[in-house]
Amino acid sequence: MHHAIRNNNRDVLSVLFYGQDITPEERQTAEQIVKANALNRNALSYSVQFYSDSGKIREDGL
Q: What are phi and psi of 40, to 5 degrees?
């Protein structure tokens, strides 16, 4: 963990990305950054989701 824990609140970190031209390298980078941020924030869990466009996010009810 990079930062000291300041309280006992543990969040769930959910990050959504959208775009039609997301490369495999960009996906990998995004997943690594979200994982690192979850660790730094002492998150209970995290998830990363990719969508082709913002309309797909709405279809999933998010």
A: -65, -35
| Closest by Cα among 45, 47, 42 to 60 | 47
Q: Which stretches does DSSP call E strand in 1-62?
A: 12-18, 45-51
Q: Tell me: the pLDDT tens digits for 13-62?
A: 999 999 999 999 999 999 999 999 999 888 999 999 999 988 888 887 76
In a domain, 21, yes or no: yes
Q: Enter the tokens of residue 38.
A: 């979850």
What predicted TM-score, i.e. pTM, was given to this entire model? 0.80
Overall number of domains in the chain: 1
| Virtual torsion, Cα 13, 1, 32, 50, nearest 10 deg | 0
Six-digit token string for 47: 């998830």
